[in-house]
Amino acid sequence: MPPRRSASDVESAVASLKRLANTRTRDDMKRYGIPSEKALGVPMAAMLKLSKEIGCDHDLAVALWKTDIYEARMLASLVGEADRVTPAQMDRWCRDFDNWGIVDTVCFKLFDRSPHAWKKAAEWARRTKEFEKRAGYVLMACLALHDKRAPDKAFLPFLTLIEDSATDGRNFVVKGADWALRSIARRSSMLKSAAAAASKRMKAARSASRRVRSAKAL
Predict the structure, then answer these.
(1) Can you give the pLDDT of all 218 residues of the chain as single tens digits?
(2) Are 121 and 139 spatial neighbours (Cβ–Cβ below 8 Å)?
(3) What is the dihedral of CA 9, 14, 15, 18, to 10 degrees?
(4) Which of 126, 145, 146, 148 lies closest to 135, judged by CA?
(5) What are the backbone angles phi and psi of residue 134, rounded to the nearest 5°?
(6) C-alpha to C-alpha distance for 89 and 155, rounded to whole angstroms
(7) How far is C-alpha 86 from the chain's CA centre?
(8) Quick check: 101 and 32 in contact, CB under 8 A?
(9) Which of 99, 124, 136, 150 is the most exposed, fewest CB within 10 Å of its CB?
(10) Can you tell me the distance from the alpha carbon of 173 to that of 148, in angstroms, rounded to the nearest whole number?
(11) 65 CB contacts (<8 Å, ≥6 apart)?
(12) Which residues, including other chains, have CB under 8 Å from residue 169's CB and lie 6 or more apart?
């Protein structure tokens, strides 16, 4: 077995990311709603290739996250080890979430394989900050897609939390909740029926909310 890398390798990893960066990718990020102030402009394909070259290294992942560089944090989610992720680490990273790209990648590539994922999905969906709340819903979607052994009944409490997003109004929260709802619905006929009922109630709640806003605007 090759020796594990230490967190001191973070400078080498960041240097590799800088060599892979280009202006066009960085400019494209703005169009997709990802802040570029902390970004280098590295294509996702290049980050995936680099992560395979590095291999799993949780110490490096923790160090990369602390750099506050967008691509370094993306790389952290690709080389992190799910069985070493702690609830405290998940909360720390969640508080740092500031765009949909990092939320979705961290949840899809790392957090959803953690044994703490189910608890954190429910906790985060109750939060108020936009990207922390989105993380809760995205984590639900990822669990629905990846946890093949989970029983259908485990997803039912998620539907109640998803319904709570009906009148949120924030784009990234709504899209995260809709992703979770669709993913859960695809798991079985029972969950499809339960999700359809939840969707119907959500549409009614959104319509009522729009009527109230319209009335107040008069």
Answers:
(1) 444 555 468 999 999 999 999 999 999 998 888 988 899 999 999 999 999 999 999 999 999 999 999 999 999 999 999 999 999 999 999 999 999 999 999 999 999 999 999 999 999 999 999 999 999 999 999 999 999 999 999 999 999 999 999 999 999 999 999 999 999 999 999 999 999 999 999 999 988 877 776 667 66
(2) yes
(3) 170
(4) 126
(5) -60, -40
(6) 24
(7) 16
(8) yes
(9) 150
(10) 25
(11) 72, 73, 76, 93, 96
(12) 209
Query: What is the CB-side half-sphere exposure of residue 132 using CA atoms within 13 A?
Result: 14
Of 180, 179, 177, the closest CA to residue 168 belongs to 177
Q: Taking the model in full, what pTM does it have?
A: 0.91
Counted residue by residue, the chain has a size of 218
- The residue type of 1 is M
Write down the residue that tokens 């080498």 correspond to: 12
Nearest residue to 93 via CA among 83, 125, 110? 110
User: What letter would DSSP give residue 149?
Assistant: T
Between the alpha carbon of residue 16 and those of residues 10, 12, 55, 62, the distances in Å are 10, 6, 14, 17
